[in-house]
Amino acid sequence: MTYKYIWFDIGYTLLYQQREQTYAQYLKDQKIDVPLSKIEEAYHYADKLFMREYPGVLGRKVNTFFHWYLGIVNYYLNLNFDLESQNRFIQARISEINPYWAPFPFVKDVLSTLKKEGYKLGVISNWDQSAKSLLDYYKLTDYFDNIIISSEVGIEKPNKEIFEYALKQGNTNQHESIYVGDNYYDDVVGSNKVGLKTYLINRFNRKGIEEIEHPYIIQSIEELPKILNTINV
User: Fold this and answer.
1) Based on the domain organization, do 87 and 200 belong to the same domain?
2) Same structural domain for residues 38 and 147?
3) Do residues 180 and 79 both lie within one domain?
4) Are residues 192 and 150 part of one domain?
5) Cα distance between residue 126 and residue 187, in whole Å
6) β 101-103/120-125 pair status
7) Parent domain of 128
8) Which pLDDT score, from 0 to 100, does residue 231 have?
9) Residue 113 burial (CB < 10 Å; 0-12/13-18/19+)?
10) pLDDT for res 1
11) What residue spans of 8-126 are helical by DSSP H?
12) What does the longest C-alpha to C-alpha distance in the chain come to?
């Protein structure tokens, strides 16, 4: 099988939130010392719990779920705080970080490598109207041949229609395309409905996705060039 088109999710595939640092600042304010790596792991577990049990919630306005989410992070770290005051502190810190989303440090290098090797690249993402502005801000837009954003096309993953729409826009098909994302229930379940081979990103090996049986799990898109060189033979 020869793959020609690589499609990407955005959140925690290309970009990440600068959130663990704000949580660490709160702990410092409380005179509590927890390694940043443990905080990152706690957020990861909270993400995976929400993806599994509460689909779609993470895409809603933050004031509709963040107290709830923050309580899960605290639980994983065996900590207990007044969520109202903790949330006020963290939201104040977040407001000082603009933009709050940033690209993983390896993203441009990976995208450049894939483009040089002749692949077409695209985006299929559940995101609001800020998606393209973020990609523009970080000078990522020009890497992509097609950018499909749910808020613009009126379809969200895991609906198969957004993948069908993307393949049509990219003048490609499921046999020559690969999808890469971090949410099994949106990305793998949705893309499988149209027969797309999907690589699931999970930064902590199998932590947080123990219930999932999926053969293609990677820690980041850094692994893609080597994988494609192996399977495109």
Assistant:
1) no
2) no
3) no
4) yes
5) 10
6) unpaired
7) 5-15+103-231
8) 83
9) middle
10) 61
11) 20-29, 36-53, 66-76, 83-95, 107-116
12) 56
Position 148 scores a pLDDT of: 98
What is the pTM assigned to this prediction? 0.94
| Structural domains of the chain, count | 2
The span from the CA of 119 to the CA of 5, in Å, is 6
Give the amino acid at 149: I
Residue 37 tokens, joined:
């790596």
Q: Across the chain, how many H-helices and E-strands are there?
A: 10, 8
Pair 69, 121 in one domain = no
Segments in the chain below pLDDT 50: 233
Domain boundary among 79, 96, 113: 96
Closest listed residue to residue 156, CA positions, set 54, 59, 61, 62: 59
Structure-derived torsion over alpha carbons of residues 225, 135, 207, 82, reported in degrees to the nearest 10: 160
Q: Say if residue 103 is preceded by a cis peptide, omega within 30 of 0.
A: no
Which among 208, 212, 206 has a CA at the least distance from the CA of 189? 212
pLDDT at 2: 85
